Write the structure tokens for this entry.
Amino acid sequence: MRRFSIGDFRLAITEGRVWIVGLLGLGLLTLTATAEAAATYYVATTGNDANPGTQAQPFLTLGQGVRGLTPGDTLYVRGGTYTAGSQLGSIPNGTSWAAPVTIAAYPGERPTLTSDSPDWQVIWLDNRRYIIFEGLVLDGTGASDCVKIDTTSDHIRIQNSELMHSPYQGILTAKAAGSNEFLNLKIHDNGFGDYAGINNLYEMHIESSDNLIDGCEVYRNGSTGIVLYYTLGLTVNNNIVRNTKIYNNGAGSYRRGVGLAIHQGTGNIAYNNIIWGNTQGGISSQYNVSDTKFYNDTIYANGAPGNTLGGIYVGSGSSDATVKNNIVYQNTGGDIASDGSSTTLSTNLTTDPKFVDAAANDFHLQPTSPAIDAGLSLSEVTADIERTPRPQGSGYDLGAYEFRINQLLPDGGHEQ
């Protein structure tokens, strides 16, 4: 037992209990509070739902695993394939990022979740909040979408996971379901189904505000890689897309789809992204948007003849867009074009930036690159896509990568 004295009060802590004893007037005041530790449960393909859910005696199904979770609890999923869908429909809420409900892969293992119906997503969340999904493979084969965050849900975090093979969308945030975080995801090979006669749907469709997309790879999907857009009057504002690679999208039979489309809302920003090889163009910003910012993006070799918006296209429905510090090079149909009102274009490079090896998708800068130290200082962009602080030299470099001397070392000093 540990004891402390605070004025006329004595405080003792023993076995997780807090006891406060003090003198109040002529009476004795005694308060007790018990702090319960967050619980950890387990699901395994060798489990049984009659088990207590311990590591030695795990549950069998996700439905049983999530049923008794409370804020702060974690459910570890062992390796194997599990049915999700309606099994996760009643997952409890967390109360804050300090006390979320977490569904995570068991350390060192990579479980796969599937849906139990073509009418369900692999993960569908309605009126849910403060839930974390970590380290999972979401296989949308036989589902509608991989993830749908619906209605008034908010504060959902999906991280370090892979989302694939959905016939429609990899992720959909619908009907004002905002303030979500999508971190270090691989989203690929989605959107090759046929919906209402129109195949190749958006692969990461954000219909809400205040979401963060960070450190993801979005590639080889049927249509547009990431789109911020909603048609029924809800706001799609203040979203952030950063440090993300978006490539080879628009691979469906209709051959349509840009890398990143911001088509509604105000205050959305995209920076430190690398966008290449998308069929219909790199970035599109049009229809009903204002105060959109594109900073330090690298946009290369997007578009196909007769079907392209070029590298960056700011359409007539845009106002007050800002396009700074980007490398936009060799895009079919042109590199930068604006039909918007009050668009600011500054310090963008459209000539040869001298990439290390563009053919191998290595968009680091050579020492002789004209992009080095050529940019403006931007308060929103304090590091590059690899989290290298900016600037490394006398000024900001253009594009997603800041040139570093150590990238010239024998090991390359950068991602291979």
Remarks:
- Residues 41 and 54 are 6 Å apart (CA to CA).
- The chain is about 0% helix and 35% strand.
